[in-house]
Amino acid sequence: MEHPVDGTRIEADLAGLGIDSPGGFAESANRFMSMIRDRGRVINLTGPGETGRLWERHLLESAAFSLLLDRSRPVADIGSGAGFPGIVLALLGFEATLIEPRRNRALFLEYASRELGLPQVTVVRCRFEDWSGASPQFTARALMPLDRLLVLMEKLGHSGTLTVRVSPDDGGAEGAIRSLVLPVPPLDRPGVLAQYRIPIRRPGAAASTRKAFP
């Protein structure tokens, strides 16, 4: 079984990215990683071999999303899966809606948010296409190709921003309004966080009738 990540290292890694973490974050992060390892034995929460690098690949990368987001506004995390980045953002103080269509993963997200004392988390078990809510800012990680996601969000009439991780091999963050190169170390793989304004309306497209956030 993997050992907990030293709290001093967690704080140092966050500080190295310029992230201010609330008191008790390191303890909560280790509890969350323990939940993923325990439940991952019966639920496919992460890929093979991922439990040994949860901190540097998944939690720390998820925490980096906070650097491009407005802490005063809620976040909708599309396809939350095991809680990346949604649960981690909630541990940093964000109000978060986690949209996850798969039953077992949605149940895990409810369990984790309850056990970690995160009343500001709402778990919605449905496909993103069927979600009737709105948000000023969205996140997504390892969900679908970026161009497909932007087209889908435009089609559904959402507005606000979308923050995603893109691979350097995918051409970086072309078209992004803000971006952040992820440093290695402390993360264990290169990447770029990119934020896009949505919807990107095609010429002649009708304006959204959903609630808009300035």
Fold and architecture overview:
α4 links the parallel β1 and β2 (96-99). This protein has helices at 7-17, 25-39, 54-64, 86-91, 103-115, 146-156; strands spanning 75-78, 96-99, 121-124, 137-140, 160-166, 178-182, 191-198. The protein is 31% helix and 17% strand. Strands 3-2-1-4-5-7-6 form a seven-stranded mixed sheet. With 214 residues, it is an alpha/beta fold. The chain has one domain: Vaccinia Virus protein VP39 (Rossmann fold), CATH 3.40.50.
How many whole angstroms does the radius of gyration measure?
17 Å
> What name is given to the CATH topology?
Rossmann fold
Number of strands: 7
- Distance from N terminus to C terminus (CA atoms, Å) equals 47 Å
Number of helical regions: 6
| CATH class descriptor name | Alpha Beta
Sequence stretches where pLDDT stays below 50 over 5 or more residues: 201-214
Strand proportion, as a percent range, falls in: 15-25%
Write down the overall mean pLDDT.
89
Question: Could you spell the SSE succession in H and E letters?
Answer: HHHEHEHEEHEEE
Structural class: alpha/beta
Largest β sheet strand count, sense and barrel closure: 7 strands, mixed
**CATH homologous superfamily designation:** Vaccinia Virus protein VP39
The second-level CATH architecture is 3-Layer(aba) Sandwich
The gross shape turns out to be globular
**Domains (count):** 1
Please bin the fraction of helical residues. 25-40%
Write out the strand line-up for the largest beta sheet, numbering strands in chain order: 3-2-1-4-5-7-6
